[in-house]
Design a protein that fits this description.
alpha+beta
Length: 161
């Protein structure tokens, strides 16, 4: 099982989103995702998040918030534990990314982009602020979300996606 981070950087009611169009064998190919990537040896979630955001965007985060842990289970991809952060303070200027195109997207418009169904769930939970920190387990068959558990309890996720 691999560990990754994902950060949704916010500015003026928009998220900085990455359109994954540059890598061929990419499980996120053609999808829009937040900023992040795989842990390196001995990294904490916070260190991985800071490094990945800087490498992909050129931005240095200031006081990002650790929001949730998402466990992905798939019938075709390696299982993954993703540590999700949000940030609205940073230094630097957005640079070109070698993994895709970086675009500031109105938060309300993110949900109509080709994103993972589970991303819609954790983004809505983060925006709702009812859960300061939560654990979400998402199970996929191919690209289809088949089950979700929030803090260990089955979640009726259909209205969230």
């Amino acid at each position: 099982m691999r560990n990754t981070t994902l950060c949704h950087i916010e500015k003026d009611g928009k998220y900085l989103m990455l359109h994954r169009i540059k890598k061929e064998n990419d499980l996120n190919r053609d999808k829009w995702v937040g900023i992040g990537g795989k842990f390196e040896e001995k990294e904490s979630p916070e260190q991985c998040n800071a490094r990945e955001v800087y490498e992909e965007t050129g931005l240095t985060l200031i006081d990002p918030a650790y929001r949730c842990v998402v466990t992905f289970v798939s019938d075709i991809w390696e299982s993954e534990i993703m540590h999700v952060f949000t940030a609205d303070k940073y230094r630097g200027t957005v640079k070109d990314c070698d993994e895709g195109e970086l675009v500031w997207i109105d938060i309300k418009d993110v949900y109509s982009l080709p994103i993972w169904q589970g991303d819609k769930i954790f983004l809505k939970l983060i925006e709702d602020k009812s859960y300061p920190f939560f654990s979400l387990r998402l199970q996929y068959e191919g690209d289809a979300l088949i089950s979700a558990q929030l803090n260990g309890k089955e979640l009726d996720f259909k209205e969230l996606i």
